[in-house]
Amino acid sequence: MKNIYNYTLNELEQYFISKGEKGFKAIQLFDWLYKKRINTFDDMSNLKKNLIETLKIDYKISSLKIITKETGKDVYKYLFELEDKSKIEAVLMLHDYGNSLCVSSQVGCNMGCLFCESGRLKKIRNLETYEMVLQFLQIEADLNIKISHVVLMGIGEPFDNYENIIKFIDIISCNKGIDLGVRHITVSTCGIVPKIKEFMNYGKQINLAISLHAPNDQIRDEIMPINKVYKLDLLIKTLKEYIKVTNRRVTFEYVLLDNINDSYENAIELSKLLKGMNCYVNLIPYNETSHSKFKKSNEKKTMQFYDTLKKQKINVTIRKEFGQNLNAACGQLRANYKEELQ
Ligand code: SAH
After folding, report:
1. Which residues are identified as catalytic?
2. Of 31, 241, 287, 333, which is most buried with the most CB atoms under 10 A?
3. pTM score, two decimals?
């Protein structure tokens, strides 16, 4: 049976019309699901009995199983079990500007970035739209809070699951439902160029973040296999076009790895690469993981890198660290959790 949280307002309108009903029933349904947060069809009192019966035949309303919830300072990490027993994680961060949810988009990941724990389990499958929607709904319900920001930065490569993440964004930003501001949604990619081009024409003001992590092909080839497919000059050229078409600023994520990409020369090279672009660089302190040979850059080198970019007139920030002690930080989420890999 199909899952009701998989469908956009448009798709549900088409569904109702195909059943000989008025399209606006979809607005009523969205209101129950996403404003009133009712999760049984029988409780949707302004829908006719026979329509409720039809909905019950065609769709189910399910939930994910919350296996564990860990709590740290300003951070919660959830481990969910999906219907096929796969496991994924999602992280909620309490910022001073609001509550930000880091959503997973796949079970496992095929991108193989050497420094990232989340990719140690190869992709098993894409998440369905409803499995992303439910991360949002269930964490809001469980903590009794409102989520103000969503970042697609959990396990998986969002642009390797393009259709489903677009539907997810459509659903959570729909003004007949959750109505999350599109400017509060960020998609992060390791740089899948054809999808960046497609995203360019999506037409919503979503933030795009690029996991760059290197100022040249030599270093990027070594730590991010995707760079062998889409080289840096192609990536940067595509992003310049993206900025022109969308008139949006792009964020570059740059994780500082000791003696790999954190030298003064690297900072200068990065500045040259990004010069003149409407962008900013988010320096990410590396979260060391037990399986990785990479080390975190020390504070002195981090500040030197930051200062060098600043002097070169590149907008730069250092990301606040969250949830390290929970293994809930960037690149520490795991699809397999404790079982298969140690
Ligand atoms: N696949 C997408 C979404 C993941 S976002 C992407 O690559 O953008 C997770 C971010 O955390 C990425 O920028 C990733 O490169 C970064 N990251 C991975 N491992 C990390 C680690 N151990 N410490 C800090 N950041 C890490």
Report:
1. 89, 330
2. 333
3. 0.95
